[in-house]
Amino acid sequence: AEDWYSFPFLIQDGETQETDMKVLSAKTTLQLVGTGPVELFYDPYMETKGIHQNENVLGFDDDPTDKVTANSPGITVHGPHTMTFPPKHEYDRYCHDGHGGPPYHLFAVGTTPAAAPGGSYTVTITARARGGRARMALTMSCSDWGTKSQYSTLAGSAQEVIAHAFGPKYETVTGTYTAPANDNAWFVQGAMEFPDETEVDVSFFSITRTRTADTTEDFQVALNGKPFRVNGKLQRFATRDFALDPVALADRDGVIRVTASIKGNHFGMARLIYRAPLLMGRNARYRVNEVDGNSFDITLTHKLSGFANDFKLFPFSTKYGGVQIRPSGGDARHNVSKNGNEWVTSNITDSTRIHVTYPAPAAPAPPARPASHQPP
User: Fold this and answer.
1) Torsion angle, CA of 16/20/25/26, rounded to 10 degrees?
2) Other Cβ atoms closer than 10 A to 208
């Protein structure tokens, strides 16, 4: 927005999330927000059909149309058949984008959750067998970030979570999966096996953090090692704000790292809120060395763009005035568009330390010219 910008991120107990330093503001706040219970499977009622060829319902792999019928909601599995999750394979020229497992230590995306080290997950399935009885076995594990392969399985993480024979009436069964207390735990994955030659209707498949309450309790985050805490219950949508020093917001590499400790429902939301006047950075990560009023001393730490060598800072609004840049060496430029927008650029390889002032002092008005005297 014109006067503020925020990064909101949903985070679970024991999870670490990271992002690059992108926004520059002297008025920065960490806000902790309470939540209710959070559903971690993309579509537990299976109401959304697949979006790719040979994909029948979102959230699962191995669900071709001859083995799985999408009822919208729910599915019918024509056994024997095994369905895996999350979807990892590319069946056609399109990729699954965020429908698979989430990137390591990044914001919550995908059809299954990040595997928080030591985290406990409750899995719930509602199903029935169309004829007689039908067995179902659910095994779960987590992928191994140490391999950097989404097809991996972390050693010792595989567990049988549910083994049940469904009858002709809908039944709801639950199981618990606990991720290993290992930093290489990446995301939750599993296989749902239907070994019998019969049809099984599945109307619900859910993954949630195992909880002792429906509210966020004792919500603490460590922001680059510095703790911020709300004791007791934090009701849904209730907030608590903490002022942040931009110098301490990121580590020496310009990475903002947040690790959560949460009781109750083991989930909360955090927001990094930047208030105007503010600047958005592009093409490089940076850290803030010093803030003096509206002047910032920053160091570029890592090039992020494969196409551009210029670090850029853009104001969100023209109403606060112009922006100035001064390099400690190398090249820096002040830019003005035809519609009056201003931004600054600095060459990433020539100048890694720059000084930015925003809003910049207004240029002094030119001296008034003396009135001319015309002869009568």
Assistant:
1) 60
2) 20
